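Cross-check.
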Amino acid sequence: KSWIDASKNQKPILVIATSQYAFVPIQNIGSVVLEKESSRLYKNQKSPYIDYRVIFEMYAKTLGARFVVGDMILRLESHIKIDQFTMHEYSPLKFRSLTTANSHCVEMDKETKSTGDEFALFANQTKAAIIEAHQNSEHILLLCSRKGLAPTVTCMDCGHLVLCSNCESPVVLHGKDATDNSNYFLCHRCNEKRSAGELCKHCGGWRLKTLGIATEKIKEVILNKIPNAHIFMFDGDHIKTQKQDKKTIEEFYSTPGAILIGTEMALLYTREEIEHIAIVSFDSMFSIPDFSIHERILTNILRAKSLASKTFILQTRNFTSPIIQYVQNGNLKDFIRNELKERKDYNYPPYSIMIRIIIQGTPAKVKEEISHIKEFLSDYELFDYPILTQSNRKISTHSILIRLPSDEWPNKKLVDKLRSLPHYIKIVIGADNIF
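Predicted model, tokenized:
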């Protein structure tokens, strides 16, 4: 009904929509506005991997409409267009992060120390914020980059990680608390689940120790101190549908003194101000094999900071990282300049476009396919490498990477060749990472 009413309406109208519902057949659209352009939700995570930001720009150009993008910090792609005068400032760009919250950046190595099996999760400022929020019936958001009780489990005798039996990825401990007998190991790659009551499969040792900070561990520590705390969890283990995320956020905001514990996905759905926000741990994100991870980390910090109305706390053990300095100084211009230089030096996007060809099958079949593809695409510089973690030991996964200068895409000859490849070969145009 909304679609029909909008398409038949002769008066000026405003259409507010998500990506897949935005293309109402109206001919006289004057402006296409893309809000929060850095959000990863604009890009499909499954085939056909459409980046709607590209589609919207083409859509506006076809209609002869003004194309406007906005965000707390624009993507590097937009900054390059501004430098090249193919995009201009609709309003002056602001390079300083402004917030009314009382901000703290805490160097955890100096603030706290590990003692035996005790691991201090919270700085003094964070503890004070949690207690203040509980006593004053205020809300608090605690962010962490990992879900579960602990993101890593290792043997203290031989040093080996506890790995998935299927794909050999590091498993994550889940359960009520770190000492509970019903705890289980879960592989977040292939979903293998098994009891945590086991010995080290490498040396037979029993001293398996959890390392790192994850969402369920934060919940466990808080409930030990505040048993009657109203806690809502927001991560991939607890939120599976759009209905769940909406319900969780609404209940959090409507519950006085509520605590929301979540991963970065919580920032995509919290839109109203929250009195206290603390990033408990994000250091593990630096190890993610993604060329845009620094941009992603900074954007998440700025989004969290902008939502806080009274207190914002950033805990880190990576205090010397340039990103921390950018956050503290509030000057984002240097970050953009340095990040662009690094991307250009390493020929990463937005100066190039990365195309991933992914082949999966038996080792012999994959080897044969790689040989054929490399011969078929011999006109291009190719990098081939195995994906070391896969869901079945009898199945091999291999990637072939093509990097082209941005101004050479689309390349009709390459497009035609890619189209002719068998349907069981996965192709990702504009890949965000190489794994």
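Residues 114-118 have pLDDT under 50 and may be disordered. The longest helix spans residues 293-307. Passed to J.P. for a second look.
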